[in-house]
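Predict both folds.
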Amino acid sequence: MTSTDSTRAVRLAVVSAGLSEPSATRLLADRLAEATRVALRTDADVDTDVDVEVTTVELRDVATEIAHNFTTGFAGGSLREAIGKVTEADGLIAVTPVFSASYSGLFKSFFDVLEKDALAGKPVLLGATGGTPRHSLVLEHAMRPLFSYLRAVAVPTAVYAATDDWAAPDDGVTPSLPRRIARAGGELAGLIAPRAATRDARPEEPDVVPFEQQLAALRVED
């Protein structure tokens, strides 16, 4: 993607741990990405056009390479590319199906192979899917602690979608799934926009002077 002087590029990575095709997890991930893209382009605080580059990582496509990474310590080509998309993005959407009352093993394994500080400070929107609303707390007791440990910045609204949520209207107590998606996308956009605006203006890292040279500079001449 090429951006002109009047446009600003925002990179959004989406990780979906869905295993089936079609996948409710991938569907939720796509809806969250679209809500974020719309919010970024309509942000009242942004005075220039924004190009939103969305890249999606389907973990089932790199499942074998993730397993090999654990035994060899090296990422294969596809996994290395997926890791690059996630670590270089301005924001991340991470969605998993619920297995045994928690995130799937494949989902956890992908984030286990990332470098320790790969997600530090990165805005992350959390999502999960399941067959029953009874598993909705997986967002708070499993996913949010995981990304807090990784020092990512999780948006306040996380989205859980049970099977019945896809067609359910507002019940007067809990907003409908489309409204929760729109709110979460807006919150993620609000965290991404300032981060992307300053991305290219970050100061360069100072040159590191080897310790031996620093000692030599302090040495008193005979």
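Second protein follows, with its predicted structure tokens after the sequence.
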Amino acid sequence: MTAVTPRGAKPQKALSPRNIMLYGALVIFSLYYLLPLYVMIVTSLKDMAEIRVGNIFSAPVEITFQPWVKAWSEACTGINCDGLSRGFWNSVRILIPSLIISVSVAALTGYVLACWRFKGSEVFFGILLLGAFIPYQVLLYPLVIILRELGLFGSLWGLVLVHTVFAMPINVLLFRNYFVALPEELFKAARVDGAGFWGIFFRIVIPMSLPIFVVSGIIQVTGIWNDFLFGVVYTRPENYPMTVQLNNIVNSVQGVKEYNVNMAATLLTGLVPLVVYFFSGKLFIRGIAAGAVKG
């Protein structure tokens, strides 16, 4: 009887020097990034008397959620003392239409540029990509004039329009590159079966494109929710998004500096992008790997 020779790579020990160095480095980097979050959380759960003792790394002796309540509904910015709640709902009203419109238009534009190319489509795509390299500061004043002429300056819909326009270059690039990688035979077969422009888009392209929609959605959610520049320039105080209100609370020069309230307000402002990343992280990686680097 002939002895079977094992094939393949030789199994490595779980605690080999290489693995110990690798996991040790990962633990150190993780602690480096998580330490500020830990400080913010424990500080937001202390009262001011405990914060004044000075040890920012110590856990709270007596946990209190009053700073979170005050950050949400009682913190003052100027004459308004309604906390972040008004800014939160303003951000929601800006985010939802901006997300739906920008992703829909970008997906449709990417579909046309990938599957229904026309004369000059590559030139149009190149010009569109140039928009991604133009500094925002250059366009601030022209956009003020455009929004004023449209009667949208200071309103939430003006900010929705701004976010939609600025989202086009990168999102069209994502969708166009993803759609180019889809099998061309599918579209030919669909056209033989009588499917037209919209039939192919809704029945074939969209069902196969969930990962890239997730990638585009995450980019838009984080970009719109974390925006400060457009929010402070193109809206009025009653329509300020959450990030602008956070800045006003943290940089308030009136009264005592309440670090626990500031930390709680910062965590509340970052909660939406954090939840989105937490629940859609795997799809985000799949979408980036599947289409964002192709084309």
